[in-house]
C-alpha cells in the first residue's frame, strides 16, 4: 500500500496525530496560533472520522480541568493551548501531574504579554518546566504529528503515568506547510492500544479519592515518588521512540539528537524549529572543514543530564540557543545545560545565545555568527557569556 | 450498627509503596473523632418514639437506624448536640464526657 | 414518587468520618446528597471546607469516587468526569460538583456558566454558608448585607458587608437550565426531594442549599438545623424551584417569623441596630413582593 502524504501545516499535523491517537474527549479553548488544530479536530468529530466528545469550554482553565475529569476515570483526553492560555491553565497543570493523569496537550509556543505579541518564542512553556509535565519540543510538522502518537504511548505507560506537553513553535511551525506522511490507522492502533484503566483511576469497581491532601508527614514522599518516576521516564522515552522508528521508519533519537558530534570542537544546542535552520548552517560550515556540531534537545523534562554529558565529551565550547529570557538571569535552557555539564570531568566552555523573542527571526546568518563567536570564545577572546541575536539597535 | 470502621494503616516502608499520584482508596478511615467530644448524647430508649429526627439531622451520620433501637457510633459522634436540641420528646441527654 | 424522609432514606453513609467542625451544616447537606445519589456517584469538590476535611491522607471520608478540583474548576472537572464516563460507556452513574458559596458565585462562576451552557450531565450543589469559611470567614459574593466577616468588619463606618447577596439561583435559571432549586438544611425532606429530582434530570441541574456554620457565624453548634429553618420562616431565604422555564415557590409563609430573632442569634449580626434590621426587612419584603407576583406557588 502506498504511503499517504499530505501537504499540511504544523497545526494540521497535530490534529492528524491526535485523530490517529483516538482520544475519547477533546476540550479546548481557541488561542492563536493553536486554533487550526482545534478547528480541524471539531471538523473530524463532526464528520465522524474521529469518534470523540468535543467539549466547548469557556476558558483554558476549564479546558485542562475538563481533561483532568476525563482522565480521572481512565478515558483518553486531549487539549491544546498557547501562551496566555497556557499560563491561565497553569494552576491546573500540577493537579494533573500530581494525580498522575496521562493527559496529552499540544502547546503552540508563543510570546508572553506584555508587550502583547502573537508570534513564536518559548517563554510560555519555560514558565511551566516545573509543572511536573513531560515536555517535548519538536522541529517540524512530521515530528509534531508523530509525537502526538508517541506522547500518548508514553503518558499511559504504567511506570510513567505522567501528562505530556508537546511544544510546537508558533507560526514558524504551526502555520508552515510541509509534506507530512500519515501512517496507517491500523499500525497506529498496534503501537498505541486503547488505554487500559490506570491503577489511580476512579472506577465503580474500586472507588478512589483523587487529588487528595498530604500533610507534612507524607507530602515530601508523594513528591519524591513523582520525581523519581519522572526521572525514570527517560528510559521509556528512548524505548518508545526506538519502537516507533522500527514500526514507522522514523527515528528521533529519544531525548536528544547529536548531529556531527563525533569530532566536533564546538557545538550549538537548540530546541524546536531553530534546529532546522541550524542543520543548514552546519552543513555549510562542515563543507568548509570546520569542526562544528549540533545537539537538538527534544525533551527538557525529564532533562537528559547523562546523555548530554556523553554527547559533549571532547567538545571544547558549547552555545545554547534560548528562545526565552529568565528575567534577571539568562536563558532557561542555558541554566539547565550548565547544571548538567557540571557533572563532566572536563566541562566545555558555555555561551548563551538568546534570540527569536516575540517571533524575531533567527536567520542562517545569526547562527553562523553564533558558531563564529564560539570559536572566538574558545580562542580566549573576551566575549560576553550571554549574547543576544539579531538585535535591531545598540544595547 | 452499619457504619464505616477505622482501618489499620502503617506508614509505607519505601517510596514505592506510596500510592501512584495524589490518590487513595475511598472508604478508608484511619482515625476516629471521639476525642473531639466534651459532651456526649445518650438516648433514653424508654422515651424515644423512633421518629428518626436525630438520624436525619446529624451532620456526622453517627446515628444508625438499622436496629430496632437507634444506636450512636461514639467513634465518630463529635458531640455537637443537634440531635438532643431537635429531639421532639427530649429523649436525648447530653452528658459530660469523663476523661 | 416515594416520599423521601428519615424513614425511607438509606441508613448507609457515603460520606463519613470527616473532620468538619461539630454541628457543621455543610457536611449535613453533603451527607444527605450522597445518600440520595448513592454508591455510583462521582463527586468533584474544589478547595474549601468539605475538601479540606475529607481527603487528608490516609483518612478518606467518601466511600464513593471523589476528588478535589482546582478552586475555579468544580463544574469543569465534573463535566470532564461525566464526559469520560459516557465515552467509556459506563452507565448509571451520577457526577456531582459540590462547591461552597465562593466556589460557586465567585471563583467557580465562569466554569459553572460554561457547564450549564454545554448542558453537562452533572448536578451542581452549592453549599451556601455565606462566606469563605475554610480560610477564616472572609466575605464572598453570597455574603448578605450587614454581615460581619474578617474582611468586612463592622465598625463605626460600615455595618459589615455593604453588598447584597448575589442572586445565584436566578442567574443560573437565566441560562435556561433544565432544573434549579434552592433549599435549606432546616427543611431536609425538601432538600432530599430536590436532590432526587436533580438526579432524575438529564443535563445540568443546580441546587443551592443554605447551610449554617457555627464556627463562622458564632452560634451554639446544636442550633444549626433550627437556624436553617428560621432563615426560611423569617423570609430571609426561600425554598424555590425553576423548571420548564418557570419559577415555583415551594413555601410561601403567610406571616414571617421575626428576622431580628434570627439575626440576633448569631455574632456575625450582633452589631446590627434597628435601622439596619429595618433595611434588611425592607429588602426582604421587596423580594417577596416580586416573587409572589411573578412566580407560581
Number of alpha- plus pi-helical segments of chain A = 13
Shape of chain C: globular
Give the quaternary arrangement of the chains. Answer: heterotrimer
| Major sheet summary line of chain C | 8 strands, mixed
Helix content of chain A: 25-40%
CATH architect. name of chain C: 3-Layer(aba) Sandwich
Low-confidence runs of at least 5 consecutive residues of chain C: none
- The share of residues in extended strands of chain C comes to 15-25%
Unreliable residue runs of chain A: none
**Structural class, from secondary structure content of chain C?**
alpha/beta
Q: The biggest beta sheet of chain A, please?
A: 7 strands, mixed
CATH class assignment of chain C: Alpha Beta
H/E topology pattern of chain C: HEHEEEHEHHEHEHEHHEEHH
**How many beta-strand elements of chain A?**
16
Description:
- By secondary structure, chain A is an alpha/beta fold.
- Chain A has two domains: 4-181 and 205-248, Thiamin diphosphate (ThDP)-binding fold, Pyr/PP domains (Rossmann fold, 3-Layer(aba) Sandwich); 256-388, Rossmann fold (3-Layer(aba) Sandwich), CATH 3.40.50.
- Chain A has helices at 10-21, 35-47, 60-72, 83-88, 92-98, 123-127, 141-155, 185-191, 219-248, 274-287, 305-311, 332-341, 364-378; strands spanning 4-9, 25-28, 53-56, 77-81, 104-109, 134-137, 164-169, 177-182, 208-210, 256-259, 266-270, 292-297, 299-301, 317-322, 349-354, 386-388.
- Chain A has a seven-stranded mixed beta sheet, with helices on both faces.
- In chain A, helix 1 packs parallel to helix 7 and helix 11 (305-311) packs across helix 12 (332-341).
- The N and C termini of chain A lie far apart (58 Å).
- Chain B has a domain at 33-96: Alpha-Beta Plaits.
- Helices cover 10% and strands 17% of the residues of chain B.
- Chain B is an alpha+beta fold and 99 residues long.
- In chain B, the strands form two sheets. Chain B has a two-stranded antiparallel ribbon with strand order 2-5. In chain B, strands 3-4 form a two-stranded antiparallel ribbon.
- The mean pLDDT of chain B is 97.
- Chain C has a single domain, classed as Rossmann fold (3-Layer(aba) Sandwich), CATH 3.40.50.970.
- In chain C, 36% of the residues lie in helices and 16% in strands.
- In chain C, the strands form two sheets. In chain C, strands 4-1-5-6-8-7-9-10 form an eight-stranded mixed beta sheet, with helices on both faces. In chain C, strands 2-3 form a two-stranded antiparallel sheet.
- In chain C, helix 3 packs parallel to helix 5 (109-118).
- The relative contact order of chain C is 0.13.
- The mean pLDDT of chain C is 97.
- Chains in contact: A-B, A-C, B-C.
- At the A-B interface, strand 9 and helix 9 of A face strand 1 of B.
- Strand 9 of chain A pairs parallel with strand 4 of chain C, so a sheet runs across the interface.
Amino acid at each position: 500500500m502506498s504511503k499517504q502524504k499530505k501537504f499540511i501545516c504544523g497545526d494540521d499535523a497535530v490534529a492528524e496525530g491526535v485523530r490517529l491517537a483516538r482520544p475519547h474527549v477533546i476540550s479546548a479553548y481557541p488561542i492563536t496560533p493553536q486554533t487550526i488544530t482545534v478547528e480541524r479536530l471539531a471538523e473530524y468529530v463532526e464528520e465522524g472520522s474521529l469518534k470523540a466528545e468535543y467539549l466547548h469550554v469557556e476558558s483554558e482553565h476549564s479546558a485542562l480541568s475538563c481533561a483532568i475529569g476525563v482522565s480521572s476515570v481512565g478515558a483518553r483526553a486531549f487539549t491544546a493551548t498557547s501562551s496566555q492560555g497556557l499560563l491561565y491553565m497553569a494552576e491546573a497543570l500540577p493537579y494533573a501531574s500530581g494525580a498522575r493523569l496521562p493527559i496529552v496537550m499540544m502547546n503552540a509556543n508563543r510570546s508572553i504579554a506584555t508587550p502583547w505579541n502573537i508570534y513564536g518564542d518559548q517563554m510560555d512553556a519555560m514558565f511551566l518546566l516545573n509543572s511536573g509535565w513531560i515536555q517535548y519540543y519538536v522541529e517540524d510538522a512530521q515530528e509534531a504529528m508523530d509525537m502526538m502518537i508517541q506522547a500518548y504511548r508514553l503518558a499511559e505507560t504504567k511506570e510513567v503515568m505522567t501528562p505530556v506537553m508537546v511544544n510546537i513553535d508558533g507560526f514558524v511551525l504551526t502555520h508552515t506547510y510541509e509534506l507530512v506522511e500519515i501512517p496507517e490507522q491500523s499500525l497506529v492502533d498496534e503501537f498505541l492500544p486503547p488505554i487500559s484503566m490506570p491503577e489511580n483511576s476512579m472506577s465503580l469497581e474500586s472507588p478512589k479519592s483523587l487529588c487528595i491532601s498530604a500533610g507534612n508527614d507524607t507530602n515530601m514522599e508523594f513528591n519524591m515518588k513523582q520525581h523519581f518516576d519522572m526521572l525514570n521516564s527517560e528510559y521509556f522515552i528512548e524505548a518508545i521512540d526506538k519502537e516507533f522508528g522500527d514500526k514507522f521508519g522514523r527515528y528521533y533519537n529519544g531525548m536528544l539528537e547529536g548531529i556531527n558530534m563525533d569530532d566536533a570542537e564546538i557545538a550549538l544546542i537548540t530546541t524546536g524549529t531553530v534546529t532546522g535552520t541550524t542543520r543548514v548552517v552546519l552543513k555549510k560550515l562542515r563543507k568548509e572543514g570546520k569542526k562544528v556540531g549540533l545537539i537538538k534537545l527534544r525533551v527538557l523534562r525529564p532533562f537528559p543530564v547523562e546523555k548530554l554529558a556523553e554527547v559533549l565529551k571532547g567538545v571544547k565550547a558549547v552555545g545554547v540557543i534560548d528562545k526565552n529570557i529568565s528575567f534577571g538571569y539568562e536563558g532557561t535552557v542555558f541554566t539547565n545545560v550548565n547544571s548538567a555539564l557540571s557533572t563532566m570531568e572536563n566541562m566545555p566552555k558555555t555561551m548563551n545565545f538568546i534570540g527569536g523573542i516575540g517571533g524575531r527571526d533567527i536567520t542562517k546568518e545569526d547562527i553562523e555568527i553564533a558558531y563564529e563567536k564560539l570559536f572566538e570564545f574558545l580562542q580566549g577572546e573576551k566575549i560576553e557569556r550571554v549574547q543576544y541575536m539579531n538585535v535591531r539597535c545598540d544595547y | 450498627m452499619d457504619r464505616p470502621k477505622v482501618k489499620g494503616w502503617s506508614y509505607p516502608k519505601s517510596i514505592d509503596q506510596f500510592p501512584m499520584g495524589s490518590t487513595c482508596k475511598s472508604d478508608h478511615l484511619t482515625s476516629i473523632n471521639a476525642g473531639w467530644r466534651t459532651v456526649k448524647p445518650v438516648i433514653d430508649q424508654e422515651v424515644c418514639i423512633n421518629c428518626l429526627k436525630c438520624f436525619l439531622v446529624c451532620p456526622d451520620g453517627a446515628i444508625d437506624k438499622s436496629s430496632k433501637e437507634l444506636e450512636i457510633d461514639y467513634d465518630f459522634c463529635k458531640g455537637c448536640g443537634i440531635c438532643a436540641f431537635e429531639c421532639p420528646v427530649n429523649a436525648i441527654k447530653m452528658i459530660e464526657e469523663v476523661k | 414518587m416515594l416520599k423521601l424522609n428519615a424513614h425511607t432514606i438509606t441508613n448507609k453513609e457515603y460520606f463519613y468520618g470527616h473532620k468538619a467542625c461539630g454541628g457543621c451544616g455543610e457536611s449535613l447537606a453533603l451527607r444527605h446528597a450522597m445518600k440520595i445519589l448513592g454508591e455510583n456517584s462521582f463527586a468533584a469538590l474544589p478547595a474549601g471546607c468539605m475538601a479540606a476535611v475529607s481527603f487528608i491522607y490516609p483518612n478518606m471520608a467518601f466511600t464513593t469516587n471523589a476528588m478535589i478540583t482546582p478552586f475555579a474548576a468544580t463544574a469543569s472537572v465534573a463535566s470532564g468526569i461525566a464526559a469520560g464516563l459516557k465515552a467509556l460507556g459506563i452507565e448509571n452513574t451520577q457526577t456531582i460538583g459540590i462547591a461552597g458559596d465562593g466556589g460557586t458565585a465567585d471563583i467557580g462562576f465562569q466554569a459553572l456558566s460554561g457547564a450549564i451552557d454545554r448542558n453537562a450531565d452533572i448536578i451542581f450543589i452549592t453549599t451556601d454558608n455565606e462566606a469563605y469559611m475554610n480560610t477564616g470567614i472572609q466575605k464572598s459574593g453570597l455574603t448578605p448585607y450587614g454581615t460581619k466577616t474578617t474582611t468586612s468588619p463592622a465598625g463605626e463606618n460600615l455595618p459589615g458587608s455593604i453588598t447584597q447577596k448575589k442572586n445565584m439561583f436566578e442567574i443560573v435559571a437565566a441560562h435556561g437550565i433544565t432544573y434549579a432549586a434552592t433549599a435549606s438544611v432546616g427543611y431536609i425532606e425538601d432538600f432530599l426531594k430536590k436532590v432526587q429530582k436533580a438526579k432524575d434530570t438529564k443535563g445540568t441541574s443546580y441546587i443551592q442549599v443554605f447551610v449554617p456554620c457555627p464556627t463562622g457565624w458564632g452560634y451554639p453548634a446544636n442550633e444549626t438545623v433550627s437556624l436553617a429553618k428560621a432563615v426560611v420562616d423569617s423570609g430571609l431565604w426561600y425554598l424555590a424551584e425553576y423548571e420548564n422555564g418557570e419559577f415555583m415557590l415551594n413555601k410561601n409563609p403567610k406571616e414571617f417569623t421575626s428576622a431580628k430573632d434570627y439575626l440576633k442569634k448569631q455574632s456575625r449580626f450582633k452589631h446590627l441596630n434597628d435601622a439596619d434590621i429595618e433595611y434588611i426587612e425592607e429588602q426582604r419584603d421587596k423580594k417577596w413582593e416580586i416573587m409572589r407576583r411573578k412566580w407560581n406557588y
